[in-house]
Write a structure and sequence with these properties.
Length: 404
């Protein structure tokens, strides 16, 4: 008799953004004249840069000629892309990361969800609270989290690290010792960052305890302050304890192209086994590589012209973030984030729940955001807005919220 993976049944409800989409569709059907402004899901709105589209066109032409056609990509990705990533993203920042320690993929979300496959089921997982849902949900699906407690909103065997205004939304080292530690900075959803001295403490802790840090740096390109690390490999000893995930989605607007990469240093071992070897086997077995044309587009991001174009796009979005941040502060809201990240994290007024504020915002302002409780129990009474919208619509959304 066929059976199912019953761990999937432990997941409470549907995926957060699916629930938001359903509520917005239902509201639109009942209110067809409503002009809804979406500041919820972190999807980009600016078109691909000229350098990127030129590279795509050139690569498509190559694919149409027998002499330059490309089939399956190499397991780790094409050398031309891995080499430029190694040089521009890491070595220029003093990080000793070689091209063959970089695995090209179709995005950080997939890698963050799949990385747990190379670790044993008995590992204890630690996550920030609030947290990007993929870290927890993928471990639930694998059977590593224990049962869900609806009264607390938590899974029994997960170590939750509270992030609040009192600790600047950065986690403290927990009392229990985790085996796998998920960290995301700049943070989704809070927009918080971690300073290098505090990140170094996490690296030292992981090396002392034999833990592995899974470091999601998908938003590092949005960092504007000089004392904030762009990579965990800026910390001494990180090669021995950390895996880093990067994405082209928010950096260069690749949400519709799909491209990212994972860094696993060859120094990193667990039970004397190389994690590089394990991930290479998993990667080669289950993945056929990002398309050649997309990898060429990724390479173009690192050209002199491409980097200027990407910086201009990021500055546009961060201009939106400033509009939201300043506007909500003027309206009397308690807000954070929006300086080193494209997310603004606001406290709901009058002790409203996150979903109550979602419904009020949709009904009275026709603005969509993301309820903080969808990111974990510590996200309750908070709300996330993104800066990825159109400039005029962003201004309009802030004005609507002000007069709401």
């Amino acid at each position: 008799m066929t059976t199912i993976n019953r761990n999937y049944l432990k997941l409470p409800g549907s995926y957060l953004f699916s629930t938001i989409g359903k509520k917005v569709r239902e509201y639109s059907e009942k209110n067809p004249g409503a002009e809804i402004i979406r500041l919820g899901i972190g999807d980009v709105t600016k078109p691909l840069s000229e350098s990127v589209t030129d590279a795509l066109h050139k690569a498509v032409t190559e694919m149409g000629n027998e002499e330059t056609f490309k089939g399956y990509a190499p397991d780790l990705g094409y050398e031309f892309l891995r080499n430029v990533i190694s040089e521009k993203d890491f070595k220029e920042r003093g990080c000793d990361i070689e091209a063959d320690e970089i695995f090209i993929s179709d995005g950080a979300k997939c890698d963050c969800g799949n990385i747990q496959e190379i670790f044993g089921m008995e590992n204890r997982v630690a996550v920030c609270d609030p947290v990007y849902p993929v870290y927890v949900d993928s471990n639930v699906m694998a059977g590593r989290t224990g049962e869900y407690d609806a009264s607390t909103g938590r899974f029994k065997d997960v170590i939750y690290m509270p992030c609040s205004a009192e600790n600047d939304f950065t986690p403290e080292i927990p009392d229990e010792t985790p085996d796998l530690i998920y960290l995301c900075f700049p943070n989704n959803p809070t927009g918080a960052v971690i300073k290098k001295d505090k990140l170094q403490k996490w690296v030292d802790y992981a090396n002392e305890k034999g833990s592995v840090i899974l470091y999601d740096a998908a938003y590092e390109a949005y960092i504007s302050e000089n004392d904030v690390p762009h990579s965990i490999y800026e910390c001494d000893g990180a090669r021995n304890c950390a895996i880093e995930f990067r994405s082209f989605s928010k950096t260069a607007g690749f949400t519709g192209l799909r491209l990212g990469f994972t860094v696993i240093p060859k120094d990193l071992k667990v039970e004397n086994e190389s994690l590089w070897n394990l991930w290479a086997r998993r990667h080669g077995t289950k993945y056929n590589g990002a398309p050649y044309i997309v990898q060429r587009a990724g390479e173009a991001v690192y050209s002199e012209k491409g980097r200027k174009e990407v910086r201009a796009q990021i500055e546009y979005y961060m201009g939106n973030a400033k509009i939201i941040l300043d506007g909500l502060k003027d309206a009397g809201y308690t807000v954070s984030g929006g300086v080193n990240a494209p997310y603004i994290w606001l406290k709901t007024p009058g002790n409203m729940t996150s979903w109550e504020f979602f419904d009020m915002l949709l009904d009275k302002a026709n603005v969509v955001g993301t309820p903080g409780s969808g990111f974990g129990p510590n996200g309750e009474h908070y709300f996330r807005l993104t800066a990825f919208g159109n400039r005029e619509k962003t201004k309009e959304a802030v004005n609507r919220i002000k007069i709401m």
